[in-house]
Amino acid sequence: MQPDKLSSAFSRIKSQRELSGYLQEICTAIIEKILDRNVVEKILDSYGTNRSLAKIDLVHLTFEYIKIVLEDDVLTDDEKDDINYLKLLFGIHSRDFWVYNKSYVMQIIHYQLFRIYRYNLITDDEALFKADFQEMFDLSFDEMNEYYKSEAIDALQRGADIKDLDIFFTPTEYFKLKSNF
């Protein structure tokens, strides 16, 4: 975990986003490096915040952090740890990003996959990033592979070799694609 990077990112979020009182306090606690599960509960209690509504806000807040760490198009082990820490701290479960932020998740997935596939070659680091990305949003292999396919098809149309794309097509899909190129 990188407390200084987490603190810096949440300082930025707090200054750039219009946040409700309890979210501002949570950001402040992260900035001051004093946030734990008990502090979250005390903040929510002090505002009389409905936990179901708070969860949606906390998913959005965590997503803001994810957008910041992806700005450099790299997801470090420390950043993954920070995201997992926030998910644990805020009680974010599998699929919550998808349920509460689907359109934003889809935008980020499309942007990151476009970035990865634009050179028609997937490096080992990029293949690992794809797996990390899938894990971050708690998506299954099949769900992510559907996103990969659309970007891979574009790369194939640009002349990429399928062996360089870290993609899984069924035999039927592969031969259909092959007949189109």
What features would you describe in this structure?
- The protein has 181 residues and is an all-alpha fold.
- The chain has nine helices and no strands.
- The protein has helices at 3-16, 21-31, 37-46, 51-69, 77-90, 96-117, 124-136, 141-157, 171-180.
- Helix 1 (3-16) runs antiparallel to helix 2 (21-31), helix 2 packs antiparallel against helix 3 and helix 6 runs parallel beside helix 8.
- It is elongated.
- The model has no long low-confidence stretch (mean pLDDT 90).
Q: Write down the oligomeric state.
A: single chain
Q: Strand portion, in percent?
A: under 5%
Helix percent band: over 70%
Detail the poorly predicted runs. Answer: none
Rg, please? Answer: 19 Å
- For the termini, the CA-CA separation is 46 Å
Mean pLDDT: 90
Classify the secondary structure makeup into a structural class. mainly alpha
H-E order: HHHHHHHHH
Major beta-sheet overview: none
Number of H- or I-type helical stretches: 9
- Taken from the alpha-carbon principal axes, the silhouette is elongated
Please report the total strand number as a whole number. 0
Per-chain topology:
Layout: H1 3-16, H2 21-31, H3 37-46, H4 51-69, H5 77-90, H6 96-117, H7 124-136, H8 141-157, H9 171-180
Q: What does this entry show, briefly?
A:
With 181 residues, the protein is mainly α.
Which key terms come to mind for this protein?
elongated; 0% strand; single chain; mainly alpha; 181 residues
